């Protein structure tokens, strides 16, 4: 006969409580970790989730295309404003969706390239791009998503052609010309794309081989000449069918540096080359 002692059947008692500062609270011991959130997902997973928000079946009184257009409208007005991660994912979807419609409205003989391979984002913010035409594409998307939803909601709504007139008669060719001037200006060494925080002094010495600003000493009282390269962030284009000009903005003051004439059917690339060469002459004569 075996006598079983119930006291021996009891489990080992838990250890005494330690100081609160030495042990992390349950359920996970160790260092404190920030709570996971949807925006912390890797970009490719977040982009996949955004794509999965598009309906694939028709609704009760809406077709599948109409429901997807409303989703695009929701991405543009609400979801992309949540934070930086959602903005990047939503703009990827919106730009890839409306890029073909945008390019189909480009007036000949103008050209378009809102996403060149050689362009890079500015250092001030990863959301900003140095490409000026990208901003025009974003304006087109903001207008287009609204027009599409209004046309689906009411048969009486007609898409107004004048809504896009300013975009493609003025803003698109002007921004495209600014990008081309930046391209040819960098090649000529008369324009630089340094961020505004990087100051570049004026110089009385010739331009260096890489087209950067040259430095000179002012201890001898030498009068500084014009800079050998102008910042692209301070340059803009005055655009008209017969004439284009390069405008420099500094301390709330605008000054037209050079102007060239053009024909109505002249390509923007030709006008950009003229402006870059005239700017080089203006800097030398100064």
pLDDT averaged residue by residue: 80
Could you tell me the radius of gyration in angstroms? 30 Å
Structural class: mainly alpha
Tally of extended strands?
5
Q: How much helicity do the residues have? A: 25-40%
The biggest sheet, with number of strands, parallel, antiparallel or mixed sense and barrel status, is: 3 strands, antiparallel
Strand order of the largest sheet: 3-4-5
Overall shape = flat
- List segments where confidence is low: pLDDT < 50 over at least 5 consecutive residues: 199-224
- Counting DSSP H or I runs of 4 or more residues, the number of helices is 7
Q: What is the helix/strand order?
A: HHHHHHEEEEEH
Strand content: 5-15%
* Distance N to C terminus: 115 Å
Describe the structure.
- With 286 residues, this protein is mostly helical.
- The protein is 40% helix and 9% strand.
- It is built from 7 helices and 5 strands; from the N terminus they run ααααααβββββα.
- It has helices at 6-9, 43-52, 64-77, 84-104, 132-153, 165-188, 268-285, and strands at 191-192, 230-231, 235-239, 243-250, 253-261.
- The protein has a 3-stranded antiparallel beta sheet with strand order 3-4-5. Strands 1-2 form a two-stranded parallel ribbon.
- A hairpin with a 3-residue loop joins strand 3 and strand 4 (243-250).
- Helix 3 packs across helix 5 (132-153) and helix 6 crosses helix 7.
- The radius of gyration is 30 Å and the shape is flat.
- The model is unreliable at 199-224 (pLDDT under 50).
């Amino acid at each position: 006969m075996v006598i079983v002692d119930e006291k021996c059947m009891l489990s080992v008692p838990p250890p005494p409580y330690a100081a609160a500062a030495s042990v992390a609270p349950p359920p996970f011991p160790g260092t404190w970790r920030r709570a996971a959130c949807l925006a912390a997902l890797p970009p490719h997973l977040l982009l996949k989730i955004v794509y999965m928000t598009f309906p694939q079946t028709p609704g009760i009184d809406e077709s599948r295309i109409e429901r997807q257009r409303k989703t695009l409208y929701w991405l543009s007005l609400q979801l992309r404003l949540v934070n930086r991660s959602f903005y990047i994912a939503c703009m990827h979807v919106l730009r890839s969706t409306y890029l073909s419609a945008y390019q189909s409205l480009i007036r000949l003989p103008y050209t378009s390239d809102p996403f060149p391979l050689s362009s890079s984002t500015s250092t001030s913010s990863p959301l900003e791009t140095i490409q000026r035409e990208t901003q025009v594409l974003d304006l087109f998307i903001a207008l287009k998503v609204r027009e599409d939803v209004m046309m689906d909601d009411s048969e009486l709504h007609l898409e107004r052609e004048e809504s896009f007139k300013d975009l493609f008669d003025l803003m698109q060719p002007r921004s495209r010309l600014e990008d081309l001037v930046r391209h040819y200006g960098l090649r000529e060494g008369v324009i630089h794309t340094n961020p505004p925080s990087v100051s570049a002094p004026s110089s009385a010495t010739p331009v260096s081989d890489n087209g950067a600003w040259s430095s000179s000493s002012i201890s001898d009282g030498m009068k500084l000449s014009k800079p050998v390269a102008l910042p692209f962030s301070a340059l803009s284009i005055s655009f008209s069918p017969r004439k284009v000009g390069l405008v420099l903005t500094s301390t709330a003051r605008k000054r037209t540096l050079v102007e060239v004439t053009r024909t109505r059917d002249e390509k923007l690339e030709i006008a950009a080359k003229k402006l870059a060469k005239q700017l080089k002459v203006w800097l030398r004569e100064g």
